[in-house]
Design a protein that fits this description.
This protein has eleven helices and no strands. It is mainly α. The protein has one domain.
Amino acid sequence: MNMVLRELKASSRALIIWSVSMFLCVLTGTIKFTAYTTATGTGPSINELLKTMPTSIKALFGFASFDMATMAGYLALLFIYVELVAAIHAALLGASIIAKEESDKTTEYLMVKPVSRAAIVTSKLVAALLNVVVINVVTLVSFLVVIPLYIKGSTASGEVLMLTLSMFVVQLIFVSFGAVLAAGMRNPRASSSIASGTVLTAYFLARITDMSDKLRFLNVISPFKYFDLGRIVAGHGLNPGIVLLSMALVAVLCVLTYFSYQRRDLRV
């Protein structure tokens, strides 16, 4: 428990910064929607404007799949970017929390304590999970508070809850991926940059597959495509099979983290 609290204290400043960033993402995105809907009454609708854009550009920015004139469609689009920010945080967190001792030159201090390597990894993963939960809750509360504030009469709480749950699963995938990278690499300090690069690659793969049905097979590589945001905002909820497969992937990555950390030579 002491190690968990130590990790939480060490990450508290970063957690606050990321939480504020998530709130600002939700706030600015919601304000933009009110600007779009206001403009619709005096000029061409946002959907008509989007029809003039090339399909590749719409796919790249996530416009291709949603009705931007509706709150549900815009919410799904906004969530693409909110989820990207949350995924980057999760990947960086998973990598840094495992590699922190070697980066901070505190490995020797940790190793002389009467605790096993498995206990160390467990404490770090629990602390990372709690950080992810906080970010997810902050995002959920931000949506539930900001949307009614700027969009009168909106009742999207059920859709927002499902969206944040899907984001939570994606966060778990990336935090465990970052952890296994840091535990398995010879130079764990480089794991953060590789983890964040992997998140961005997965994001661009998700956007590229929207350009052509022939590329849909790539969706299995990108966690951003595991959940259909359009289906979620339409009220169909999460696919239980995808949730179970995603959690199985998280479990495998966590087991690999323990295995790799047990075998590695820690630098002091």
